[in-house]
Amino acid sequence: xxxxxxxxxxxxxxxxxxxxxxxxxxxxxxxxxxxxxxxxxxxxxxxxxxxxxxxxxxxxxxxxxxxxxxxxxxxxxxxxxxxxxxxxxxxxxxxxxxxxxxxxxxxxxxxxxxxxxxxxxxxxxxxxxxxxxxxxxxxxxxxxxxxxxxxxxxxxxxxxxxxxxxxxxxxxxxxxxxxxxxxxxxxxxxxxxxxxxxxxxxxxxxxxxxxxxxxxxxxxxxxxxxxxxxxxxxxxxxxxxxxxxxxxxxxxxxxxxxxxxxxxxxxxxxxx
Length: 272
Ligand code: PEP
Ligand code: MN
Fold this sequence. Notes:
The chain has 272 residues and is an alpha/beta fold. The protein has one domain: TIM Barrel, CATH 3.20.20.70. It is built from 9 helices and 10 strands. The strands form 2 sheets. An 8-stranded parallel β-barrel has the order 3-4-5-6-7-8-9-10, surrounded by 6 helices. α4 links the parallel β6 and β7. α1 packs parallel to α2, α4 crosses α5 and α8 runs parallel beside α9. Bound molecules: phosphoenolpyruvate (PEP) and manganese (II) ion (MN). The site of manganese (II) ion has 5 residues, from loops.
């Protein structure tokens, strides 16, 4: 069966708006923030810093899909209240993960975009649920999903009426353990050749290694990605989740400085 709703027809490209942020208009959008919202102060501090660097979208998990049930599971709605405050303070849009269709109505007022994480990429009731709402969806590639699995997961959302979907390549499992996952850079031009949807990369989960985030961000830009999602924490050593792949403010600034210098070199040459 072929794709219908998200298929690319000719040169058609879908532009997706999340609050004031725009994906797929030819620019390179930066989403950043902590893996998990751990408290009010750390979130507001992070948001203020990111705003100074022109970040468009603040990320932060309040409902966390953790491997172990004994790990920090997120602050849930309390965390989303801090997120709303940070967004109002800085003007940044918000993206946060939804794991359960039953949480839809409680999360809805607090976010501009729903994230569906890797572990739920084929949670079909959840895909259909976000497809029935009027807010955009950030769909992350499953840990072991083929390109076809990924595209049909997006199609599930679009079939319900919502084709405001951004695809996120976040690395796939392989045999190596120097990295947490292997970021599939080739997926970026491939997904953009097969679908009309914007595609971003997540080099934080895609590598799991702090020192690989900058080079992979630049690789994603060159490969035609519409943006990047990066985990940033005021003190990664103390993070309650994913500290080893989070950048502190200084390292994030260095990344943005390099990205700004390189971005103009690729102007108008990122469609393949
Ligand atoms: C996340 O972005 O917070 C996350 C849990 O990522 P993934 O679903 O890609 O593992
Ligand atoms: Mn994380």
